[in-house]
Automatic annotation (TrEMBL):
GO biological process: DNA repair
CDD domains associated with the record: PolY_like
Gene source species: Rhizobium deserti
Species classification: Bacteria, Pseudomonadati, Pseudomonadota, Alphaproteobacteria, Hyphomicrobiales
Catalytic reaction equation(s): DNA(n) + a 2'-deoxyribonucleoside 5'-triphosphate = DNA(n+1) + diphosphate
Domain named UmuC: residues: 29-152
Domain DNA polymerase Y-family little finger: 244-345
Protein's name in the database: DNA-directed DNA polymerase
UniProt entry keywords in alphabetical sequence: DNA damage
Amino acid sequence: MARVISLYFPRWPTDRIRKAGADGTPPPEKPMVVISRSGSKRTVCAADDAARKLGLRVGMPASKAQALVADLAMYDADPVGDLAALDKMALWMLRQYSPVVAMDGADGLVLDTEGADHLQGGEELMLSGMVNRLRGVGVTARAAVADTWGAAHAIARLTSAEWTVVPVAGTAKAVLGLPIVCLRLAPETINGLRVLGIDTVGQLSAMPRAPLTLRFGPEVGRRLDQLFGRVAEPIDPIRSLEIVGVSRPFSEPIGAAETIAKYVGRLVVQLCAELETRGLGVRRADLIVHRVDNTIQAVRAGLAKPVRDDKRLTRLLTDRIEKIDPGFGIEKLSLVAVWAEPLEEKQQSSSLIEETVVDVTPLVDVLGNRGQRIYRIAPVSSDVPERSFRRVGPMSKETGIDWPTNWPRPSRLFAKPEEIEVMNVLPDSPPRTMTWRGKRRRIVRGDGPERVFGEWWLRDAELHAVRDYYVVEDEGGERFWVYRAGDGVDTTTGSHRWFIHGIFG
């Protein structure tokens, strides 16, 4: 079943201006509004969060807004610039998240995530990742995923949650209580329905269809059917002229898995040939399936590094053919390299002794396209253990930073240190006993302390912070990495409580 994401930008005009970073752009804490003109009339058409907190609202006269806020930053509306920036955002979403992305009005995007959400770890991680990444670049967003475009559009705009996942087949329960404004009907139609006492989707869906059609036309019934998924609402995906793609229409619809696989293989060969002429390799490829009922399905394949290996790419795509529902038949297949990078051909070694280089990227690609979250750990220049590493892509280049070798590190480091009770001799002796998770252990060996100082240049609170780490071994032979918060003498350096931070294998 198709799943659709609606991404709504409630502050897009003001966010776009700040994101552009033009000279004189006010900081986020200073109120800012965007002004539209209609003849001699000037009104507020967008306001950021700081302006709204001061009582400014969309539709307010510009003169009244200036009177309420003395140092108000005001910009003229630029709908063309807003749409151009939204188009760029859509292309970025196409590359990062979904094969099918389209504009959803002047303040949102719609994405068909079928066949792509597994690359992001599931729908919830996909939505939260979108919202958080956009917040990181100064764009306020709300996202919702549902079975239909209409339901996702309504929930993203009429709920306050940053992201919402509507369960499969849960559309009716999620939208029946929403106001009828969510149906994307003309304002005069909304006002006419309200005159009849109809305020919610549930009330409208319970009305007889014939009188509604007679009075308001077929649009009310069509929007209701789209909302509940009784009528398809196809998404026409955007495409950039720079994106490399090939397609194959069929005079007779196809549907058998073997036939689909055969033509996918041919399209991959054509795509690789086109990429070769441009010196590119594909990092992310989308197979777009156009069905005869005017609906679109998509399958996405991601690669750890750019390649032009037709056999490898064919395998990744055909592995997911079972996700395609041909319905009454497929009339067209399109294969698009939405993410391509320069690919340099490597010269074969001429040495007498050939070096064997094991390339694990094919395995990484297979596991990644099956929904596995693959990464490796890279060192970071930090003495604080929990900050001394980070997750990177499985095939990321080396950073040039080495792991510390002067002191041993545990094979398992806890995400959060756990407090323990110890008996020891201050200030520098390792614990004699420790109680962890209700079990008392007698320590027979200990090594340390290794003193770790706080990173005062990053956090003022760590100016005097100190940790003393010890490697200890209990009578059962288990080895632990424990530390005392503080130097054991001065309480300004820490609480002098003890914690276990890791276990040696």
